[in-house]
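User: I'm curious whether this sequence folds into something compact or stays loose and floppy. Could you predict its structure so I can see for myself?
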Amino acid sequence: MSLRARLARLSVDLTPWRGSRDFRILLIAGTVFFLGGMVGYVALPFQLYQLTGSNFAVGAMGLVTIAPLVVFGLYGGALADHLDRRKTLIATGIAQAAICAVMLANSLLSHPQVWVIYACGALNAIATSLQRPSREALLPRVVKHQEMAAAVALSSLTMQVGQLAGPALGGVLVGTAGVSWAFGIELTGVILATALYLRLGSYKSSEHSKPPSLRGIGEGITYAFRRKDLLATYVVDMVGMFLAMPIVLFPAFATDILKEPKLLGLLYSAEAIGAMAASLTSGWAKRVHHQGRAVVLATIGWGASVGLAGLAPNIWVAIAFFAVAGGADMVSVLFRSVIWNQTIPDEMRGRLAGIEMLGYSLGPLGGQARAGIVADLTGVRTAIVSGGILCVAGVVGTTVWLREFWRYDARTDEHAIRERDLRTAAEAG
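Assistant: Here's the prediction. I'll summarize afterward.
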């Protein structure tokens, strides 16, 4: 095989983009929405610190949003299984636009109110928790079953573009034009994304769906725990993020350990760069069938790379290892998403998306707290290195415990076969 052919097999697969109008709409809307959201992500803590001068006041925003994420994440998943997912995206998009407008108006006051910022943060967490399960549950409906790996890789680029460009743009705006301009950009992104959602087709729920209830939410949780392959995807991710999440230590690592405070921004960008590289070379993923093994090995790679970054003699070596870690994490995300989207019944997809959202929201939050405590007790390098080592050990232990995950094969798994047959029949009909 020629070098050109080999490179072509690695390049990102654009088949879902070419074949599905609604996938294109979701991808463009997601890019606009996430880019604007990351601009606001920089502006909000900056404004809080300007007004209060307190690091605790900035960190308290995380405390304000945890409860809405837990409660409304689960409820939003049940809602996604009952209502037309397009209508849910539009309704929550309008709510998010209203919240952004209040943030913008507050920032234009001569004396912006801190309580308004916290209230808007909590309300935005509610709206996001209600919206995200519906958006993620739409993916299997808009692309073909065999195109799922390519669709996930393309969707991930949305987040990575936002992670790279959004904070950079937000930093420039708050430092020059002011936070109001940043909130204005965020508001524009929400409005444009919501307008794009209006162009989606209708995606009604099953005629057997039931209104959201505690019983329905419980059924989703029970389903997730009964399927050991699904349970393993959640546990492996939680273990990896809780034990090895290093981001909270970046300021101290760059300033006190590596003596390069001016290059701190590159530490924050390194993982996103690695993840983007993994997405852009993800063409090989569609030929992988043992997706559980891929998740396990990728998460081990994440932990090992973070641990090695903690030993780096200079910031450039650290950046390189954090980029590798970001690429490994992207591979884990890719195959976990493929397993979810190819095996979960559509009538359960929203509730399971709500559970997923809790997993990848709470894991990093807990991981940052763990890293901060360990660093204060033992040192920054020790916290990063020990986190990487514990991550590798934890993932290996989880794999031994849930060994069915290691044996998972998309070609023979009963849930994957059922969903593949249902999709084939629907497409033929």
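Summary: Residues 38 and 373 are 27 Å apart (CA to CA). The radius of gyration is 21 Å.
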